[in-house]
């Protein structure tokens, strides 16, 4: 089944490079959840994540001729989603005010038993610097290996390992302080 999907994506990629807009739509549908997920978990803002996803696919459309295979496409989209997420985070003005349009929509409870703990963990992840935060999201949300993360982040594998190790240690410390009631 996965091979049939890969062959379909290869075909859609070839047709899209020749100008078939419906084939480009197939590519977008196949990868939009991944791109949006990376942006959402990095930015924690649905509106910004949608913008990042749109920018990523616009950039893909402009660079279709450079994409060699469906594996290259997936790798390329992850890299672009990461870079655009970082760009968006840097542009974002931290004024502390939240407009009604930016307010998060109510969602169903997650499988985690404690929604307050989950919210705290996401806030702690969001407080990490950009590169460690991105490494954590790619590792634990997108389930990428250290080697794949190194490729996406254009960094040596040992750097990725260090980023992950320090990020996890920082999260442990912040979580311990938060559980003792100390401001994070």
Work out the strand percent: under 5%
Number of strands: 0
Secondary-structure element order, N to C = HHHHHHHH
User: How far apart, in Å, are the first and last alpha carbons?
Assistant: 47 Å
Largest sheet: none
Structural class assignment: mainly alpha
Structural features, described:
There is one protein chain. The protein has 184 residues and is mostly helical. It has two domains: 1-92, Rna Polymerase Sigma Factor, Chain: A; 106-184, Winged helix-like DNA-binding domain superfamily/Winged helix DNA-binding domain (Arc Repressor Mutant, subunit A, Orthogonal Bundle), CATH 1.10.10.10. Helix content is 72%, strand content 0%. It contains eight helices and no strands.
Which features does this protein show?
single chain, 184 residues, Rna Polymerase Sigma Factor, Chain: A, Arc Repressor Mutant, subunit A, elongated
What's this model, at a glance?
The protein has 184 residues and is an all-alpha fold. It folds into 2 domains: 1-92, RNA polymerase sigma factor, region 2, helix turn helix motif (Rna Polymerase Sigma Factor, Chain: A), CATH 1.10.1740; 106-184, Arc Repressor Mutant, subunit A (Orthogonal Bundle). The chain has helices at 2-17, 21-43, 46-62, 70-91, 115-126, 130-141, 146-153, 157-179.
Q: Helices and strands in order, then pairings?
A:
Elements: H1 2-17, H2 21-43, H3 46-62, H4 70-91, H5 115-126, H6 130-141, H7 146-153, H8 157-179
Helix pairs in contact: 1-2, 2-3, 2-4, 2-6, 3-4, 4-7, 5-8, 6-8, 7-8
């Amino acid at each position: 089944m996965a091979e049939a999907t890969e062959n379909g994506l290869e075909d859609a990629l070839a047709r899209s490079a020749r100008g078939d807009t419906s084939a480009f739509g197939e590519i977008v549908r196949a990868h939009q959840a991944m791109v949006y997920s990376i942006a959402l978990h990095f930015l924690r803002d649905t509106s910004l994540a949608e913008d990042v996803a749109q920018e990523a696919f616009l950039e893909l459309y402009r660079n279709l001729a450079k994409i060699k295979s469906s594996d290259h496409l997936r790798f390329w989209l992850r890299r672009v989603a990461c870079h655009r997420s970082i760009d968006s985070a840097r542009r974002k003005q931290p004024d502390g005010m939240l407009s009604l349009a930016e307010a998060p929509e109510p969602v169903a409870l997650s499988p985690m038993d404690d929604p307050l703990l989950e919210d705290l963990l996401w806030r702690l992840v969001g407080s990490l610097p950009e590169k460690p935060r991105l490494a954590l999201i790619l590792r634990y949300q997108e389930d990428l290996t250290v080697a794949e993360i190194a490729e996406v982040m254009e960094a040596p594998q040992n750097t990725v390992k260090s980023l992950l190790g320090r990020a996890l240690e920082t999260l442990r410390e912040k979580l311990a302080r938060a559980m003792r009631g100390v401001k994070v």
